[in-house]
Amino acid sequence: MRESPDRLLPLDALHRRLGARMVLFAGYQMPIQYDGIIAEHLWTRAHAGLFDVSHMGQLLVPTAEAALLETLLPGDIIGLGVGVLRYSLLLNAAGGILDDLMVTRRAGDLYLVVNGAVKDADVAVLRDAGVTVDRRDDWALLALQGPTAVTVLEALVPGVAALRFMRAAGFAWQGHDLWISRSGYTGEDGFEISVPAAAADALATALLADAEVKPIGLGARDSLRLEAGLPLYGHDLDPATTPVMAGLAFAISKRRKLERGFPGAERVMDELFNGAARRRVGLAVAGKLPAREGAAVFVGDTAVGVVTSGGFAPSLEAPIAMAYVDTAHAADGTALTIEVRGRRLDATVVPMPFKPKNYVREGAVA
Amino acid sequence: MTLYFTKEHEWLAVEGDIATVGVTDYAQAQLGDVVFVEVPAVGKVVAKGKEAAVVESVKAASDVYSPVSGTVTEANPALEADPALVNSAPEGEGWFFKLTLSDASELDGLMDADAYKAWVATL
Description:
- Chain B: Its cofactor is (R)-lipoate.
- Chain B: Belongs to the GcvH family.
- Chain B: Keywords: Lipoyl.
- The complex is a heterodimer of chains A (366) and B (123).
- By secondary structure, chain A is an alpha+beta fold.
- Chain A has helices spanning 12-17, 37-46, 66-69, 119-128, 149-156, 197-208, 218-227, 254-259, 265-274, and strands spanning 21-25, 28-33, 48-52, 57-62, 85-91, 97-105, 109-114, 134-135, 139-145, 168-173, 176-181, 190-196, 213-215, 278-285, 296-299, 302-313, 318-326, 335-340, 343-350.
- In chain A, the strands form four sheets. In chain A, strands 10-11-12-9-3-13 form a six-stranded mixed beta sheet.
- The longest helix of chain A has 12 residues, at 197-208.
- The radius of gyration of chain A is 20 Å and the shape is globular.
- With 123 residues, chain B is α+β, with helices and mostly antiparallel strands.
- In chain B, 20% of the residues lie in helices and 37% in strands.
- Chain B contains four helices and nine strands, in the order βββαβββββααβα.
- In chain B, a hairpin with a 3-residue loop joins strand 6 and strand 7 (61-65).
- Chain B has a six-stranded antiparallel beta sheet. Chain B has a three-stranded antiparallel beta sheet with strand order 4-6-7.
- The longest helix of chain B is centred in the C-terminal third of the chain and has 9 residues, at 113-121.
- The radius of gyration of chain B is 13 Å and the shape is globular.
- Chains A and B meet through helix 2 and helix 7 of A and strand 4 and strand 6 of B.
């Protein structure tokens, strides 16, 4: 395991060449913004944004350990087809969420992408359970997101356009192996590209040479995923949150619901049938003042919840938030208020995503 | 009119006993895209070094401190309709509020433009 104190990522020099403002995130120096969050956000919605997400953990697990992996998360891993991605959740014994992750079955192994801030802890949980984990710390991870991502990437890596949402395959670029999935966390069509660290700068530079592509920082990544209604680990998800509370019951595969056998299954299935005490909801916030993480949510004088992610949505030009509220107040259309610095902002529970997603699904007409 | 600056990246333009307060170009660049500004109410008494306004960027909320003590006489009405003035004209149209100085000697401890520029260069 590599544990250098400064923890520079493979594209550090590139970010500095591009004039990024760097911040410490998940233990790494990471670009927060280049041109500005609003410009980068809107660029990604209209063109293609290149994100460095190399802080995330890339792990390989032997396919033979799929059943062992199923003792830690509620997805159908055994039945996963080759080249198919599944969103899943690493759970603790109480059904609380330790991380959210992507699992892909490849021809010879299972490929996991986990959150950067908790990847060391995830590896420890997996290894404690007897899972064989190979860390791909010498691979970078890029995300190319936006409506023109497909044409940009197809020009460099022919064949990627044939992938559909939540599908992945191996490709090559200038003699380097790439593992590319049609996925992301912005609500846009796009790709995540795993590339050997030594080739990452060259690949990123080649992508950025296309006039459709601009580098995008973590700031816009956060506003994009919030508009897409996607939860962020450490904010909207934590060990006290269950899949049902988080609105992520879709991550419990049908076979697993019948067989159970995942951590906290009894509690999670009880919540699935009888409801959880709290639910993650989307809130449209009236006015212009954003409500941030930690702001209390009220019905009248009664506190009924708390904001877990909130900010200004550049595409909607309005503040939006995710909050956990008591289930009695979680229905769409419910009028709530949010307290921000002593004032009450009117808010309404609205369906998520706030901004419709733009995925290219299997069977969809391109 | 005399211009003063603080290490917290506020500027203040003083004419007689009235000071106009805003944030510097350096500050707006650090804040990023400003989407909301909460300015103090007219008549509010503000104290040197205490929170007087709040700037919300896309990413976060940041306090703005009053560089001097005094009573607010005017808040910039243009910021409500166009908070991005803080980014486009931080040291002009994007001013925050005006106040009547209650203790002009507080100005003595502030920096002039050259001193502020030299200080920013060290950051």
